[in-house]
Amino acid sequence: MQQPITGYHTDAEGHWVAELACGHNQHVRHNPPLEERTWVTTAAGRDSMLGHQLNCKKCDENAPPDER
């Protein structure tokens, strides 16, 4: 389920985490070979992504099968 990004923070290991409108948090990765998200490496890139949508894996896991 697509959710807009409302903010960011870093976890205890220094990894960037997107805060989503649904209340869930999701790691955003920017180092290959993982999914490349170069926008998370700069403050300007993070600001430009506020409001853009990410697929919330936790919402998808909790959704009834016909809504996944």
How many alpha or pi helices?
Answer: 2
Mean pLDDT: 78
What oligomeric state is this? single chain
Number of strands: 4
H-E order: EEEHEH
Strand ordering within the main sheet: 3-2-1-4
Mass-distribution shape: globular
Q: Report the structural category.
A: alpha+beta
Helix content: 10-25%
Q: Please mark out the parts with pLDDT under 50 across 5 or more consecutive residues, or reply none.
A: none
> What distance lies between the first and last C-alpha atoms, to the nearest angstrom?
7 Å
Largest sheet entry: 4 strands, antiparallel
Which percent range describes the beta-strand content? 25-35%
Q: Output the radius of gyration.
A: 12 Å
Brief overview, please?
With 68 residues, this protein is an alpha+beta fold. The protein contains two helices and four strands; from the N terminus they run βββαβα.
What does this protein look like?
- 19% of the residues lie in helices and 29% in strands.
- The protein has a 4-stranded antiparallel sheet.
- The model has no long low-confidence stretch (mean pLDDT 78).
- The chain has helices at residues 43-49, 57-62, and strands at residues 2-10, 16-20, 25-27, 53-55.
- By secondary structure, it is an alpha+beta fold.
- It is globular and about 35 Å long.
